[in-house]
Design goal:
The chain has 338 residues and is of the alpha/beta class. The protein is built from eleven helices and 15 strands. 28% of the residues lie in helices and 24% in strands. The radius of gyration is 20 Å and the shape is globular.
């Protein structure tokens, strides 16, 4: 098969022919129809992820058609249209039994713990607990856009953040995750304040339902407090920096909820006096298990959520190495390997 491969961190990958994957007994091989280009792939290419071993094929947001099926797979057949969460659970541990596959201690991640989807084919283990059917009428590009950023934002806003209609929600960082969070919170009836330093990102946030936008370069927590008349009920750091994390916490009202979604390069100092005195709640959010997809898929199917609007461009596999290295702009770029 053809795949994007890098043998050194930070060195431009190449498209080359490599052996086709084989399914494990409990896994499948998927013919990749669409895969998203994500900043996490960029971090992996730079060597920021300890799970990656070289040579490596990146890519973790994918959709496609089941090509081959392991002997132990019960629920899937060749020809099924599927997508997968970027955190693939084992299905056997205590967390998986409790429905929390997104924090499975034995998790695998395509494009990180193994070769990913910047390729014509990708192998996925534990298929019966990790595959999600792509419904009729949903494009492969839309399905691929769900796999990391959109599903991650959905869990952060709906499950961990427990958003309610009429609440103020602040979203710090309007990249793929942040813009997804803006759209999801607005669809749930919340009033959203989008925060970023990019005018283009803030314009997209307005289009996706933000009530107000704040240029982070002009002050953040104070502006959010003013706009929301005392602070957001729910705030997300969708970027992952000491500055955005602190701004998210400091922009909450008393009793508010902070959800950390963006990965931080190192643990930051936090305004814990505010957390204690105002009885704030700090939560983490890490992907979303396949079993939790149905409510999100229902909202996509009935048009309340439009992840396809996040897609800003489509490229072929030969263009992927340069796009990975440059990694610029808000929205989602889709790679079509075929």
């Amino acid at each position: 098969m053809r795949a994007v491969v890098f043998e050194e961190f930070g060195v431009l990958p190449e498209v080359r022919r490599v052996p086709d994957p084989e399914p494990s007994p409990d896994g499948v091989v998927i013919r990749v129809e669409a895969t998203g280009l994500c900043r996490s792939d960029w971090h992996g290419w730079l060597g920021h992820d300890p799970d990656i071993t070289l040579p490596h094929v990146p890519g973790h947001e994918l959709s496609g058609v089941v090509e081959a099926v392991g002997t132990g797979v019960r629920d899937w057949r060749s020809g099924d249209a599927v997508t997968v969460p970027f955190v693939c659970a084992c299905g056997r541990c205590r967390d998986c039994a409790a429905g929390n596959g997104q924090v499975c201690a034995n998790q695998t991640q395509p494009g990180f713990t193994g070769w990913g989807s910047f390729a014509e084919f990708v192998a996925i283990d534990n298929a019966d607990v990790n595959l999600v059917a792509v419904p009729e009428g949903m494009t492969f590009a839309t399905a691929a856009s769900l796999g990391c950023r959109f599903a991650t934002a959905f869990r952060a806003v709906v499950h961990q953040g427990a958003v309610r209609g009429g609440e103020w929600v602040a979203v710090h960082g309007c990249g793929g995750v942040g813009l997804s969070a803006v759209m999801i919170a607005a669809a749930c009836g919340a009033r959203v304040v989008a925060v970023d330093i990019s005018a283009a990102a803030l314009e997209l946030a307005r289009q996706f339902g933000a009530t107000a936008c704040v240029d982070a370069a002009e002050g953040t927590a104070e502006r959010v407090m003013d706009i929301t008349d005392g602070g957001a009920h729910l705030s997300l750091d969708a970027l992952g920096s000491a500055t955005t994390c602190a701004a998210s916490i400091n922009g909450l009202r008393r009793g508010g909820r902070h959800v950390q979604v963006g990965l931080l390069p190192k643990d930051p100092p936090l305004p814990m006096a505010r957390v204690i005195g105002w009885e704030l709640r700090l939560l983490g959010s890490h992907g979303m298990a396949a079993a939790a997809y149905p409510p999100m898929m229902d909202m996509v199917a009935d048009g309340r959520l439009r992840p396809d609007r996040l897609i800003t461009g489509t490229i072929g596999l030969d263009e992927a190495p340069r796009a990975l290295a440059e990694m610029a702009g808000p929205g989602i770029t889709i790679i079509e390997p075929g």
